[in-house]
Every structure is written in C-alpha cells, then in structure tokens.
Amino acid sequence: MAPLISIKSSEDKLEIVNQLLLPHTTEFIQINSVEDAHDAIKTMKIRGAPAIASLPALSVSQHLTRGLKSSPVPDYLLSRDALKTHIDGILAFLYTSRPTAVNLGAATRRLTKTLNDGISVEKEPREIVQDLIAEGRAVADEDVGRNKEMAKWAGEWLIQRVRDQGLDFSRGLNVLTVCNTGSLATSGYGTALGMITYLHETQKLAKAYYTQTAPYHQGSRLTALELQTLQIPSVMICDTMVGSLFQHHSIHAVVVGADRIAKNGDTANKIGTYNAAVLAARHKIPFIVVAPISTVDLDVADGSHIPIEQRPPIEACLVRGIRYPNSGESEQVQVMITPPGLEGIYNPSFDVTPASLITAIVTEKGVAVKAEGETSGFDLSPIV
Ligand code: MRU
For 303-314, how does the pLDDT look when each residue is reduced to its tens digit (9 = 90+)? Predict the structure, then answer.
C-alpha cells in the first residue's frame, strides 16, 4: 500500500489530512489562507515538527501565487516597503502557531532571508515574490529526500553497532519508538519512523514497538496506521509498559524524532520520550535521535532554554475515536475519562531528554556520538 500523506499541494490547491480524525476517517481539508494554516497547526489537525514547517511555507507560496494573479493588484506588490511589511506580518503570525518545534522558526527565517536578500539588491516586488514562492515550496519538497538520508545513516549506524558488540540479530532488530514521526509528521518517509522503514526495507527489522503516546495518542492513532499501511511487523504498548518491555524482551534500540535539539544535544520531543530514555539507559539500550538539521537550534545552549508547549488541560481528560463496538459508521466521538470539573491537570506536550541519556544524534549529514566518557554533551558541528 502507498504510504500515507499529510499534505497535498498543487499549483492552486493546498490540502491536509485532518489528523484529528485518523485512523478511522480520512478527510482532506482545504487550506485557503495563512489563517487556515495557522489554525490547522494550533488545533493539531496537522502536527509533527517537519510538517508544521512545510504547511506554513506552502501557505505563504499559495497566498503569494494568488496575489500575483489577482486583479486589482494587491497593495503589497506596489513597493518593496509594502511587501516587506506584509510578509513580515504573515511570518510573525505563522510563527505563533506552536512554540516548541524549531523547524517552524527555521522555515519562517528562510523566507525572511529570501525577502531581505531580494530587497537588499533592489529586486522588483514581483521578482521577490517569485523567489518567496519557490523558497516556500523548497522547504516542503526538500523534506522527503533528507528523511531518506538520515534514515539510512541511522539504520546503518545501528546495524554496525550491534555487529561491533557481537550481539545476535540473526532474527532481526527490535526497535522501540515514541509518538509519530512518519509520513504524517513530515512531507514523507519520516525521521525515526524512516529509520524503522529503512531497516524493514533492508530486511533487518524484526519488530517495531511503539508507545500509544497519551494524551494525544499519536502512537496508537497515527504510528499504528502508518506501520499497518507499510505492512511493517509491529507491537503497540501503553506508555506505562516501556520498563516491562525492556525487562522481558530483547530491544536493540530506542529511536525517536525531535522538536528541538539544543547545542549540547539536549532534545525536546513528545512527552514520554524522557521516561523511555531513562529506562533505556538503565537497560543499556542505545537511544537514537533522528531529525533534520533544521531541528538543531544552535542558539539554544541547553535544554533548559527550550520553550515547552503546555496544551489545554481538557486535552488530557479526553480520548477521541469511534464508538466501540463499531456500529459500522465512522462517527467520531470524544470520551471524557475524568470526573467533570477536575482541577489540577499537568499537560506539557513535550519533555527534554538530556544529552547524557542520548547515544547518537542523526541528521541528513551523518551521525554524532558522544566521545567515550563524555558527560557534558555532543559536538554537533559535523552533522549540522
Ligand atoms: O505534538 P506533536 O504531535 O506535533 O509532536 C510531535 C513529536 O513530538 C514528534 O516526535 C517530532 O515532532 C518529530 S516528527 C518527525
């Protein structure tokens, strides 16, 4: 079966799959404005660090493509100053949609640079707009290729490490992942799930284990669907079962994506990642982070400076899905699992895994490992 897709874009149409309705209903919704893109990200209809960079970039391209064709000519095409004010405003607005994933900021900074470069050499507004349209599309298009590169780097690194340690993997590798990092979270193939796919494609994977990833259930709703679609042998576990899994099964690695990687390697990722890292260290299981270079934020010295998004408390009280037993209709329901009026709910969307618990960080450029005995962090310079 063909891999799932999160974004469909053509010359004049931009659509996303509404991830709130997956895995039971596949509904594409149209994105017709930068406001639609902002809303889709804020309400989690689209999520995953690379995908929430691609969509805003494409929505800027769409907005500007329409502007070039529209009559009367929009005011912002009349002067470089007007264009700058207009684009700066749009990018600042899109940047506010979610705070933790740095990829969104990296995309808006790329577009700002294209704008400023065009202005500094006194290009005509229409020419700058053409450059911005191309740059917006490039942000989304580049994602798939680099995902395949990092997936291969990560997969080959793990195979080599297991070989070097003389471990038996004649029946394949067992790998645990958290959250959803596949085609739905990116423009295609995925980061951590890309590594799992690569191992499967090269006949090196025994099973992919994945956590349900409460409270949003990116694991049980989205990763489950992706692995099923790709026919990759897999086992779902509840978030509370990671320790038990490590005690009773041979797990060769934990592989996760990232929303922001600080200069020292501290990594923000979906809530529950830190728990898995602590348990992996206890069981001497390598812990691998796979993410594009745009996820590395060299302006942030360590994880204590990464902004952590707090989601609305109600989201931790609800489970969404279809009625069970399934009546045959895919009527979507949200079920409340807490007493009404409950107060005191802690709902951070991400946690930070310290570099000391991470074995390897992989980007499209290669693999960084900590030097033997190094406790202070990673030298990421070779992979950014
Ligand atoms: O809140 P989400 O679903 O956007 O969080 C997603 C994650 O934490 C992913 O693991 C991360 O963005 C990497 S996606 C390739």
Answer: 999 999 999 999
